[in-house]
Design a protein that fits this description.
The chain is of the alpha+beta class. It has a single domain, classed as Aminopeptidase. It contains six helices and seven strands; from the N terminus they run βααααβββαβαββ. β3 and β4 form a beta hairpin. α1 crosses α3. It is globular. The protein starts with 8 loop residues before the first strand and ends with a strand. The mean pLDDT is 89.
Length: 172
């Protein structure tokens, strides 16, 4: 099977045409606490970010890929490898899926494709994710993809309701 795609989705590089949907997702304040965002992004900043997306994971220490649905060509979300550490061969994983594409297996497929790419092509030794203990959907997603809970970071993230604990999930 080819890397970064299956029968339903393709994980692809960012394109200039992705600006509007990226702007929508990045400025959705309801997901900011999951991604440590504290303020909106301008179209200019996102346009510059997209223009730099040709740089490799070795240059940027991050790889952001669009989740494209093969049937329609629509962008359904984004998946990231971040804090790439070449020496220790590890990276963080995050995902954002548009609400209209949730609960149909796309997130699981996207994470598994990203994992295959990371482990087989990039030769990463371990992937990790930080998930708020209250985020049952993300916890279930990562567990379904073979991650295990390896620890809890107490009072790690400030939310509207106060500080919350965060799970550390790892996959080797």
């Amino acid at each position: 099977m080819a890397l970064l795609k299956n029968d339903r989705i393709i994980l692809r590089a960012l394109e200039p045409e992705d600006l509007d949907v990226l702007y929508k997702w990045e400025n959705d304040s309801s997901v900011w606490s999951s991604g440590n965002t504290t303020s909106p992004y301008s179209r200019y900043a996102l346009k510059e970010y997209i223009s730099q997306s040709h740089l490799t994971i070795y240059d940027q220490k991050q790889l952001r890929l669009m989740i494209e649905l093969r049937e329609t060509g629509n962008a359904g979300g984004i998946v990231d490898l971040y804090d790439f550490d070449l020496h220790n061969r590890k990276a963080g994983v995050s995902i954002l899926l548009d609400t209209k594409f949730q609960k149909n297996g796309i997130a699981t497929e996207a994470i598994k494709l990203l994992m295959d790419y990371a482990f087989s092509f990039l030769k990463i030794h371990q992937l990790y994710a930080y998930v708020a203990v209250t985020n049952e959907a993300s916890k279930a997603l990562f567990l379904r993809c073979g991650f295990t809970v390896s620890g809890v970071l107490s009072d790690w993230t400030l939310t509207e309701d106060g500080f919350t604990d965060v799970l550390v999930l790892q996959c080797f």
